[in-house]
Protein backbone atom coordinates (compact mmCIF):
# COMPACT_ATOMS: atom_id res chain seq x y z
CA UNK A 1 0.00 0.00 0.00
CA UNK A 2 1.36 3.43 -0.85
CA UNK A 3 1.31 6.31 1.62
CA UNK A 4 -1.69 8.14 0.15
CA UNK A 5 -3.80 4.98 0.17
CA UNK A 6 -2.66 4.34 3.74
CA UNK A 7 -3.84 7.80 4.80
CA UNK A 8 -7.18 7.20 3.05
CA UNK A 9 -7.53 3.93 4.97
CA UNK A 10 -7.25 5.76 8.32
CA UNK A 11 -9.83 8.44 7.44
CA UNK A 12 -7.94 11.14 5.54
CA UNK A 13 -9.08 12.78 2.32
CA UNK A 14 -6.60 14.26 -0.18
CA UNK A 15 -7.64 17.88 -0.63
CA UNK A 16 -4.79 18.97 -2.88
CA UNK A 17 -1.60 17.58 -4.34
CA UNK A 18 1.02 19.49 -6.28
CA UNK A 19 4.56 18.69 -7.36
CA UNK A 20 5.87 19.55 -3.88
CA UNK A 21 2.94 19.52 -1.50
CA UNK A 22 0.11 17.27 -0.26
CA UNK A 23 -2.77 18.57 1.83
CA UNK A 24 -5.02 16.10 3.65
CA UNK A 25 -8.25 16.84 5.53
CA UNK A 26 -9.23 14.53 8.35
CA UNK A 27 -11.40 13.63 11.29
CA UNK A 28 -9.55 11.33 13.64
CA UNK A 29 -11.36 8.69 15.70
CA UNK A 30 -9.43 9.66 18.81
CA UNK A 31 -10.87 13.18 18.60
CA UNK A 32 -14.03 12.71 16.50
CA UNK A 33 -15.44 16.22 16.92
CA UNK A 34 -12.25 17.76 15.58
CA UNK A 35 -11.56 18.35 11.90
CA UNK A 36 -8.24 19.58 10.68
CA UNK A 37 -5.56 19.42 8.06
CA UNK A 38 -2.25 17.64 7.64
CA UNK A 39 0.24 19.09 5.18
CA UNK A 40 3.39 17.44 3.88
CA UNK A 41 6.19 18.89 1.75
CA UNK A 42 7.68 16.34 -0.65
CA UNK A 43 10.97 18.24 -1.03
CA UNK A 44 12.16 18.10 2.58
CA UNK A 45 9.68 15.90 4.45
CA UNK A 46 8.41 18.68 6.67
CA UNK A 47 4.82 18.36 7.82
CA UNK A 48 2.33 19.84 10.18
CA UNK A 49 -1.19 19.51 11.48
CA UNK A 50 -3.24 22.64 11.82
CA UNK A 51 -6.43 23.81 13.41
CA UNK A 52 -6.99 25.96 16.45
CA UNK A 53 -6.64 22.85 18.67
CA UNK A 54 -3.69 21.05 17.11
CA UNK A 55 -3.19 17.60 18.61
CA UNK A 56 0.06 15.71 18.51
CA UNK A 57 0.18 13.22 15.63
CA UNK A 58 -0.70 9.72 16.85
CA UNK A 59 1.09 6.48 15.89
CA UNK A 60 -1.04 5.94 12.77
CA UNK A 61 -0.29 9.44 11.50
CA UNK A 62 3.43 9.11 12.21
CA UNK A 63 3.51 5.79 10.32
CA UNK A 64 1.95 7.55 7.32
CA UNK A 65 4.45 10.42 7.55
CA UNK A 66 7.32 7.92 7.52
CA UNK A 67 5.75 6.21 4.48
CA UNK A 68 5.50 9.56 2.68
CA UNK A 69 9.13 10.38 3.48
CA UNK A 70 10.23 7.01 2.17
CA UNK A 71 8.18 7.35 -1.03
CA UNK A 72 9.53 10.82 -1.78
CA UNK A 73 13.10 10.03 -0.74
CA UNK A 74 13.43 12.56 2.05
CA UNK A 75 14.94 12.10 5.52
Note down, in words, how this protein is organized:
- 28% of the residues lie in helices and 32% in strands.
- It has 75 residues and is of the alpha+beta class.
- Strands 1-2-3-4 form a 4-stranded antiparallel β-sheet, with helices on one face.
- The protein starts with a helix and ends with a helix.
Summarize the structure.
The protein is an alpha+beta fold and 75 residues long. It has helices at 3-9, 59-72, and strands spanning 12-17, 21-27, 35-41, 47-50. Helix 1 (3-9) packs antiparallel against helix 2 (59-72).
Comma- or semicolon-separated keywords:
75 residues; alpha+beta; 4 strands; globular
Write the layout of secondary structure elements.
Blueprint: H1 3-9, E1 12-17, E2 21-27, E3 35-41, E4 47-50, H2 59-72
Helix count? Answer: 2
Report how far the terminal alpha carbons are from each other. Answer: 20 Å
What structural class do the secondary elements suggest?
alpha+beta
What's the gyration radius in Å? 12 Å
Helix proportion range: 25-40%
Shape: globular
Number of strands: 4
Average pLDDT = 86
What is the beta-strand fraction?
25-35%
Give the SSE string: HEEEEH
Q: Could you give a short account of the major beta sheet?
A: 4 strands, antiparallel
User: Biggest sheet: strands side by side, in what order?
Assistant: 1-2-3-4
**Spans with pLDDT under 50 lasting ≥5 residues?**
none
Amino acid sequence: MNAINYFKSIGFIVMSETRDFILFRYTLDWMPYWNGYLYFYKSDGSYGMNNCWTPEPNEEVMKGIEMLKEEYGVK
